[in-house]
Design a protein that fits this description.
The complex is a heterodimer.
Chain A lengths: L1 H9 L1 H37 L5 E5 L11 E2 L2 H6 L4 E16 L5 E9 L11 E2 L8 E5 L1 H4 L7 E5 L3 E9 L3 E2 L2 E7 H7 L10 E2 L1 E6 L1 H5 L1 H4 L3 E4 L1 H6 L4 H33 L1 H9 L4 H34 L9 H17 L2 H9 L11
Chain B lengths: L5 E10 L6 E11 L3 E6 L6 H8 L7 E6 L2 E2 L5 H11 E4 L11 H12 L3 H14 L15 H14 L4 E5 L7 H17 L3 E5 L11 E6 L2 E7 L3 H5 L1
Helix pairs in contact in B: 3-4, 3-5, 4-5, 5-6
Classes of the chains: A alpha+beta, B alpha/beta.
Chain lengths: ~375, ~240
């Protein structure tokens, strides 16, 4: 618009400063969002990827898999409920491993699964579990740590040796890469617990109608049912992490709104005499308001776009070291929120503009 | 004799209430005819700025009414009066009061933009005014780069850009030397006379009276003199 851009042109530095603030805030918001996403994915990716409707876990486990222990034989009882389509036992545990010839320990998650079953991971390289007894499929993030196709590693402290036969992707649990192994092997590796059934597993995974699933705790004693969402949210640290990072992002947006509002309010105050003259010569309040909003939008759009580029560049640089992932959808959402907030921040200034008295333009000397 | 462009009838204006009430104007009858430049003279506090503000639809009176080309202007809303000022009035203030971030030429094009002139018309009219006022060369500069006299000339061009019915000038020569100041008022008078507009010139400077058609003197909120200007030339004829 006529006035909006010309004013910016005439005072480039100050408008560049406020745009700089918007750039910084928006990059921070996007980066934090990417980090939050990445961390969350690191925690829950393997759970989110499970092609099932729910998990049957022991009562009292409070959705925490590492507190759940259930007999594999219960799978039959569950399968007998009408409306249940598929049932499988699943073992989940954590461990440390050491690559042959190396000294450093790597933290991993074990998934003991039924070979050729629902939980068979999609193979990127190599072979699936199939008939293997000592072969495992690992998530590709473990490859970055030096364990590749064909490598052998030992589980610490037991010293059991396993060989990598296949590589999959997108399987991380509790910020550790997942290693898929046959359920029998998993059960062998578990320490013996007092009073636990011989065929103990962590959970029974099911596919079926929601009514059927709801009926499971009645049919099988001492059990409860958790959806994938519930299990994922209860991973230790997950909800706290998400809440903290979200809180920071919200604060950032609020701070940005405050700074933008203050900046334009001060500029408006400085322009009061000029605004009075403009009203005196016939410029309407609506016109002046639209001019201000145009300016804010122009600067905010530029600021957000630059912020997106910075966040994208950072993603390329640190993506391998720190968990980081951002979707275009999220960026579009945050970008829009920032734009809205920027425009909202002009409310004070708009009120001031509306109150400007054109009489102030005529010096009241007499 | 054509009808008056501007008429103030029975205007009264006070500020404040009760004990702190100040009567700025009382019983004012004042008119500006076609092609007439009226000088409005009075000491500080006489009410001349208030009178100018009311005449310029910037202030509503407590009593009386204001007619512009026969139509009452005092009943409108704030927004309506703003539009009226845009369409019918040209203002020249003491300090030129140009927009700091527009060049001389853009000050004029802004008015054209507000009143909806086409780009071509806007450029033509701006060029003509700049030429008439001798500002063509300096028109690409910002106000901060122009001298006081140059700024005031741009202000005059701006006041004429919307082809107003009446021009209100509040001490336009205050920040200028006497030569420049006289030039400015000469230009104003020329525009008023040649194009049959109306003009009110608030001034302290008695030496400018001969350029005007009428003198109105105001003291303590009342007009006590309203006479045609008798110039040496007129007498000689």
């Amino acid at each position: 618009m006529f006035l909006a851009l010309r004013e910016i042109r005439h005072a480039k530095l100050r408008f560049a400063l406020i745009t700089g603030v918007i750039v910084m805030v928006s990059s921070l918001v996007f980066i934090l969002s990417g980090l939050a996403n990445g961390l969350s994915a690191g925690n829950t990716a393997a759970i989110d990827a499970m092609p099932i409707d729910a998990m049957v876990i022991s009562n009292g486990s409070d959705y925490l898999l590492d507190r759940s222990s259930i007999g594999a034989g219960e799978a039959e009882t569950v399968a007998s409920i009408s409306g249940i389509e598929a049932v499988e036992p699943l073992g989940v545990s954590s461990a440390s491993i050491k690559k042959q010839g190396e000294t450093n320990l790597l933290g991993v998650s074990f998934f003991g699964v039924e070979p050729d079953g629902l939980m068979e991971p999609r193979i990127q390289k190599g072979e699936s579990l199939g008939e293997q007894t000592k072969g495992v499929v690992i998530d590709e993030t473990l490859v970055d740590d030096g364990v590749g196709l064909g490598d052998t590693f030992t589980i610490e402290p037991d010293g059991v040796e396993l060989t990598v036969v296949g590589i999959t992707t997108g399987q991380t649990y509790r910020l550790a890469p997942v290693i898929f192994m046959p359920l029998a092997l998993w059960q062998e590796l578990q320490p013996i617990r007092q009073g636990a059934p011989q065929d103990a597993v962590t959970a029974i995974i099911v596919r079926g109608s929601s009514q059927a699933i709801e009926a499971i705790p009645e049919a099988v004693p001492n059990t409860m049912v958790g959806s994938l969402e519930q299990i994922a949210n209860h991973i230790p640290g997950e909800s706290e992490q998400n809440a903290t990072l979200l809180l920071i992002q919200v604060f950032l947006v609020v701070i940005a709104a405050g700074i933008i509002a203050a900046f334009f309010y001060i500029i408006t105050l400085q322009k009061m005499p000029e605004l009075g003259v403009m009203k005196a010569i016939g410029t309407g309040t609506g016109y002046l308001a639209r001019t201000l909003i145009t300016q804010v939008l122009a600067l905010a759009v530029v600021g957000v776009l630059v912020g997106i580029s910075i966040a994208d560049t950072l993603a390329l640089i640190i993506g391998n070291v720190i968990p980081y992932s951002i979707s275009t959808q999220r960026m579009a959402l945050f970008g829009s929120v920032l734009l809205l907030v920027a425009v909202g921040g002009t409310a004070l200034s708009l009120a001031r503009i509306a109150r400007v008295d054109p009489l102030d333009a005529i010096n009241k000397a007499g | 004799m054509t009808a008056n462009i501007l008429e103030l009838q029975g205007i009264g204006k006070h500020f404040g209430d009760g004990e702190s009430r100040v009567d700025a104007l009382q019983d004012i009858d004042f008119a500006v005819g076609n092609g007439e430049l009226v000088a409005l003279i009075g000491p500080s506090g006489s009410g001349k700025s208030t009178l100018l503000s009311i005449a310029g639809a910037l202030l509503t009176p407590n009593q009386g009414r204001v007619l512009l080309d026969g139509a009452a202007i005092t009943e409108g809303s704030q927004a309506e009066r703003t539009q009226l000022r845009l369409a019918k009035y040209g203002f020249i203030f003491q300090g030129s009061n140009l927009i700091s971030y527009l060049t001389g030429r853009e000050q004029l094009l802004f008015i054209a933009h507000l009143i909806g002139l086409s780009n071509k018309e806007a450029e033509q009219r701006a060029d003509r005014l700049l030429t008439d006022l001798g500002m063509t060369e300096r028109a690409g500069h910002y106000p901060e780069e122009l001298s006081g006299g140059q700024r005031q000339r741009i202000a005059i061009a701006r006041a004429l850009m919307n082809d107003p019915r009446i021009i209100l000038a509040d001490e336009p020569t205050a920040s200028l030397d006497s030569v420049r100041g006289r030039q400015v008022v000469e230009m104003l008078a020329k525009e008023v006379h040649e194009r049959e507009k109306g003009g009110i010139l608030v001034t302290h400077d008695e030496r400018l009276i001969d350029l005007c058609d009428r003198v109105v003197r105001i003291t303590d909120g009342r007009i006590h003199e309203d006479e045609a200007v008798v110039t040496a030339q007129a007498v000689g004829v």
